[in-house]
Amino acid sequence: MNPLRTPITASALALAAALAFSPLAQAQGAKLKVGLMLPYTGTYAALGNAIENGFRLYVTEQGGKLGGREIEFFKVDDESDPAKATDNVNKLIKRDQVDVLIGTVHSGVAAGMAKAARDNGTLLIVPNAGAGVVTGPMCANHIFRSSFSNWQPAYAMGEVMAKKGHKTAVTITHKYAAGDESVAGFKEAFTKGGGKVLKELSLPFPNVEFQALLTEIAALKPDAVYTFFAGGAAVKFVKDYSAAGLKKSIPLYGAGFLTDGTLDAQGADADGLLTTLHYADGLNTPRDNAFRLAYAKTYKLQPDVYAVQGYDAAQMLGIGLAATKGDVSKKADFAAALRKAKIDSPRGAFTLGANHDPVQDFYLRQVTGKENKSIGVAVKGLADPGRGCKM
Ligand code: BEZ
User: Fold this and answer.
1) I want to staple 54 with a disulfide (CB 3.0 to 4.6 A). Which of 49, 233, 279, 310 is the partner?
2) CA of 363 to the centre of ligand 1 (A)
3) Average pLDDT value for residue range 316-322
């Protein structure tokens, strides 16, 4: 072997390796690593699965590629546990070296993800968690949400309940960021409309021992109850509220998570409940009908709001990647494309506000059989106030 050849071969190899990992090479064909950090166990497991289903459905509809790049998935079960959020997100950022993070459901976990995304400059799209901090004080050029802020559906319901003439309300929720922010959003609109919150009840997440709190509601005798619960906890709350005999005497309202993806398990106990959310059954638009048909065919399940949010997170990623020819390092161009985009969602088209949270319609829905039937738009084009966001 000619010894002079060795260094040439080594440097050629080094050059080839460097090119393989360059943004140009990535843009030209390396797989895009998508890190899904979602709850696959616990109270919010069904929500995490629906988000992943929706995300994958959109990618499949695009032939498995976004912005010309094939998608490779990496998954972490975050268990809706904020204490594990930093370790879990670092598995995706540091170990798997993902290009983009998609997650999560629980607001406390999402706050940890947003911090890691900011510290590492990793692109993040939040497909559910409504934590105000994500699109408030922690907002950034490379952080986006495809769902809602906790303030939004709650504010819409505060308006609805005040307009219905309810003068007093009791609130009940899990004691963590999502519950606290939901109650605050509700209270803001309800008091503006002349209502008064008599008491704010809560229990630690994910505790579902509601009995003592239900007894307190009965004693307080408010005109109505506003609640934020989701997933398995929402199922149990609606059943317990009805079993306690309260459904007949004190009308129950909620942010729409109370009855979304839960109706099979809640059965007749959910009948008639009114909620507000950015998605509903029976929208009957060509866009939603096509989505619902594709989702049902693929998963043998009806989609819910979480599936829509996952689907739209993939759409948003696709829009950013199309504008940057698949190069996620071009953060300014990625953000500019999304800021001017009209996202063609099954919920109805929406845009992003300056803080990267959806500006969207909130439907008033009523449970009829196994559906959250839209009975109109409660608030049109509602934007999160983006308090604390400086970009
Ligand atoms: C949250 O923690 O932000 C959340 C969880 C479930 C449904 C909606 C919001």
Assistant:
1) 310
2) 18
3) 98
